[in-house]
Design a protein that fits this description.
The protein has a four-stranded antiparallel sheet. It has one helix and four strands, in the order ββββα. By secondary structure, it is an alpha+beta fold. The N and C termini lie far apart (29 Å). It has one domain.
Length: 69
């Protein structure tokens, strides 16, 4: 969990969220890192990733690494 103050970050949701309240939001931080939070709990903290960590996570999603089937 990030201990950095990210309240001024510009948060974005996926265009596929259709305005639903149950989404994750991401923010690209000034130092190149990326933060991710639960849109239902915007003050509940954020996970922070370095660019390489985020890329590995995104690649895992695209490769169905988390598919339970």
């Amino acid at each position: 969990m990030s201990s950095r103050d990210v309240t001024g970050a510009k948060w974005r949701k996926s265009s596929r969220s259709n305005g639903q309240a149950e989404c994750v939001e991401v923010a690209f931080l000034e130092d190149g890192n990326l933060a991710m939070r639960d849109s239902k709990r915007p003050t509940g903290g954020a996970l922070e990733f370095m660019p390489d960590e985020w890329r590995a996570f995104a690649d895992s999603l695209e490769g169905n690494a988390f598919n339970r089937q």
